[in-house]
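Example S7 (structure tokens).
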């Protein structure tokens, strides 16, 4: 992807995100706080002296909230795209979960319930690699249930035949 396609704001926010997360920014902020604390006796610990640090930290915190949210949104979107690519590329993965981040909270809870069910079904399988999707796990579980039900019925019939003879 070309860097020239980025807007000035995009370039600035990328730079600001990298800088504010660096050790240089932390050291700089620490030095500012130390300088402010050391200057306390010079300003006789006045209300104005206290107001300077309070106002500065409030403004910086306010702006950082938006910067952090922008960076988080961008990272989240990139991760979602990567996960969608992995799901789409894997032949045994369920494509139903591509772009699920657009679902409502209620729909996500329902999907979460299905994956809890998948986990329960997988625990019942001897081999954890036999189930690759909710549908496959359900089919495997239904097959095993019917198979063992049939075997049990055959066993009961043989037992009944032995009683009759």
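Recovered sequence:
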């Amino acid at each position: 992807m070309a860097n020239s396609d980025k807007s000035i704001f995009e370039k600035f926010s990328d730079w600001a995100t990298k800088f504010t997360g660096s050790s240089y920014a932390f050291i700089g902020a620490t030095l500012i706080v130390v300088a402010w604390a050391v200057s306390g006796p010079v300003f006789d610990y006045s209300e104005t002296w206290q107001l300077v640090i309070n106002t500065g930290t409030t403004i910086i915190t306010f702006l950082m909230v938006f910067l952090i949210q922008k960076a988080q949104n961008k990272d989240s979107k990139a991760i979602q795209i990567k996960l969608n690519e992995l799901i789409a590329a894997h032949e045994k993965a369920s494509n139903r979960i591509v772009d699920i981040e657009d679902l409502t909270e209620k729909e996500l809870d329902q999907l979460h319930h299905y994956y809890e069910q998948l986990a329960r079904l997988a625990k019942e399988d001897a081999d954890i690699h036999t189930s690759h999707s909710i549908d496959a796990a359900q089919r495997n579980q239904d097959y095993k249930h019917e198979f063992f039900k049939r075997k049990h019925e055959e066993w009961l019939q043989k037992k009944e035949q032995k009683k009759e003879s």
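Notes on this example. Residues 1-89 form one domain.
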